[in-house]
Every structure is written in structure tokens, then in C-alpha cells.
């Protein structure tokens, strides 16, 4: 008996990864019925059920778990092999995934500076709030915010980050008139803006804080814009938002900073470590971060 058509494996691997035909369809840019039909065809070919259907949620059978490891290994080898082939023989484009805030504030306004480093290369910038999965082949490199040291990735430091709560002058004037003895008391019982619905970013700095209300945004860019509009207090990432403070769009509640050991990093798969386009991207991005202005009050 011959193995099943290899195109079925990509569909099966995506459905198993996301436990959803709909999410697999979105990833593969096909319709959910098309995914369902190919999974059914694969199950009939193998003579075994691969999924248990529990409403919209899928779980793998024991046969499905075994075959998922086969499919996942094949797809990972295919993606990494194609990426290496493309970089070595054809590639003159770099796909960079980055947070929306960094793309809008830093990268896109200075796009042509990358072209000066790689005049014949195309830089494709995509944005998102979740970490890109390099195994899917959707990006060659990414700018991430965090502590670094991600497994199987090369992490190049772009900029260390310090944190301090910021508000718009409008919110400060309307809602924060009473002086407080310390920063924790100052931000307590106010509207907090965050990208984390569990408020772990706030609780890590102020464990005993009790917010008046919480606004959860889908990106840091949205959170900063919400603060600028006077909706509440947000944790400012310095020096990334130095311009916003210098221009008076936001104001610091304290001259002090929290050092959380977080930073912006350029990350890429280890097999891409010697890619000259990624090296040029790091040089370009590092120059942009290094060129962020100092705060006027420092």
C-alpha cells in the first residue's frame, strides 16, 4: 500500500495543531468543508479515525496522535528544507513579523533605510500580537518583546526596555487631582489599559492594585492610543514611547522606572543564522532603536 497523497498531510497537520477545521482552513486559505473532505478522505485511505468530533472542538484519537507526529515531522522538514533552498538559491526578500506599535512608529517610517543596506532585496513587514510560529514558514525573522532565550531561535538584542505608567494630560487633569504618597497608591482605583486580560503586566509591578475598571486591547499600539485619548493608565515601554512623551501626548506619573529585564529582540531560526538579509535587518533595526530620542526631562 502506498502512502496517502502528501497534500493531505498539510491539511491534517493544521487541523490537528489547531484542533479545529475552521482554524486550519483559515491558515491554509481554503474553506472549512474542503478541510473536512480531505480529512475524511485521509481517514478512509488509512482505515482509521484520526479525530473525535466533540461539537466544534476536535481531539485526536490514538491513531491520530501517532500519525500527527508523522505529518508534523514531514511538514517541518518540508518547510525548513524549502526555506534553506529558497534562501540559498532564490531568496531576495525578507519576511519580518513585528508588533504593530513597532511597525507603525519605527520601521515603516524608515523603510527606505533598509533598502540602502539591501538595495535589491524586498522587505515584507507583517504585524500581529502573537508570536509567529517559524515552523509554518510564515516569516523569516521577527521582532519580539520579552526576556529572550527562546528555544531553537537566535535572539539578537535590539533595545532594553524600562516600564513606567503613563496617562494623557486630559486623564491626569480630570481624574488624578489628589496627590498620593507613592506610585502604587496613585494608580490604584483607576482605569487600567492592558493587552493582558489577566492583568499580569500590572500585578507583577503592583501586586495589591485594585482597578476601577480595565480596558483590554488587542495590541500595544491600541493600548497606547487608548491612553492618549484619555481612557485610562497604560504601562509605557521606554524608550519606545519617548516621542509620545516628548510631544505631550502622554505624561509619566513618576520619573522612576521598573526594570523588568524585558527587551526588544530580533529573532530568527537557527538555520537562518548566517542569512545576510537577516543580518542587514538587525543592523537596520538596531540603528533605529539606538536612534530613539532621549526624554526632554532627562
From TrEMBL:
Top-level division of the source organism's lineage: Bacteria
Q: Which SUPFAM superfamilies match?
A: Periplasmic binding protein-like II (SSF53850), Winged helix' DNA-binding domain (SSF46785)
**PROSITE patterns membership:** HTH_LYSR (PS50931)
What are the protein's GO molecular function terms? DNA-binding transcription factor activity; sequence-specific DNA binding
The UniProt entry's GO biological process terms, in alphabetical order, are:
DNA-templated transcription
Q: What keywords sit in the KW lines? A: DNA-binding, Transcription, Transcription regulation
Q: Does the keyword DNA-binding apply?
A: yes
Record-linked InterPro entries:
LysR-type_TF_proteobact-type, LysR_HTH_N, LysR_subst-bd, WH-like_DNA-bd_sf, WH_DNA-bd_sf
Q: Does the keyword Transcription apply?
A: yes
- HTH lysR-type domain location, by residue? 4-61
Pfam families cross-referenced by the UniProt entry:
HTH_1, LysR_substrate
Membrane-traversing stretches: none
UniProt lists the family membership as follows: Belongs to the LysR transcriptional regulatory family.
The name this protein goes by in its record: HTH lysR-type domain-containing protein
Q: What is the lineage of its organism?
A: Bacteria, Pseudomonadati, Pseudomonadota, Gammaproteobacteria, Alteromonadales
Amino acid at each position: 500500500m502506498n502512502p496517502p497523497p502528501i497534500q493531505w498531510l498539510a491539511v491534517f497537520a493544521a487541523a490537528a495543531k489547531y484542533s479545529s477545521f475552521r482554524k486550519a482552513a483559515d491558515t491554509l486559505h481554503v474553506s472549512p468543508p474542503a478541510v473536512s473532505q480531505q480529512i475524511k478522505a485521509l481517514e478512509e485511505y488509512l482505515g482509521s479515525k484520526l479525530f473525535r468530533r466533540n461539537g466544534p472542538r476536535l481531539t485526536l484519537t490514538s491513531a491520530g496522535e501517532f500519525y500527527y507526529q508523522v505529518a508534523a515531522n514531514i511538514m517541518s522538514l518540508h518547510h525548513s528544507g524549502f526555506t534553506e533552498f529558497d534562501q540559498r538559491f532564490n531568496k531576495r526578500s525578507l519576511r519580518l513579523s513585528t508588533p504593530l506599535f513597532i511597525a507603525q512608529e519605527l520601521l515603516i517610517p524608515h523603510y527606505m533605510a533598509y533598502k540602502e543596506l539591501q538595495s535589491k532585496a524586498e522587505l515584507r513587514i507583517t504585524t500581529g500580537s502573537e508570536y509567529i510560529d517559524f515552523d509554518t514558514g510564515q516569516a523569516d525573522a521577527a521582532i519580539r518583546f520579552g526576556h529572550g532565550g527562546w528555544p531553537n531561535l537566535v535572539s539578537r538584542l535590539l533595545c532594553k526596555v524600562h516600564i513606567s505608567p503613563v496617562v494623557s494630560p486630559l486623564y491626569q487633569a480630570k481624574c488624578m487631582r489628589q496627590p498620593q504618597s507613592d506610585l502604587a497608591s496613585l494608580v490604584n482605583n483607576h482605569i487600567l489599559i492592558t493587552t493582558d486580560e489577566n492583568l499580569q503586566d500590572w500585578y507583577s509591578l503592583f501586586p495589591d492594585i485594585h482597578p476601577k475598571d480595565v480596558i483590554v486591547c488587542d495590541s500595544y499600539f491600541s493600548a497606547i492610543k487608548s491612553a492618549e485619548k484619555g481612557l485610562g493608565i497604560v504601562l509605557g515601554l521606554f524608550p519606545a514611547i519617548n516621542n509620545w512623551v516628548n510631544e505631550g501626548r502622554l505624561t509619566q506619573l513618576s520619573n522612576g522606572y521598573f526594570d523588568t529585564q524585558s527587551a526588544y529582540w530580533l529573532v530568527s531560526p537557527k538555520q537562518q543564522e548566517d542569512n545576510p538579509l537577516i543580518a542587514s535587518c538587525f543592523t537596520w533595526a538596531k540603528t533605529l532603536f539606538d536612534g530613539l530620542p532621549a526624554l526632554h526631562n532627562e
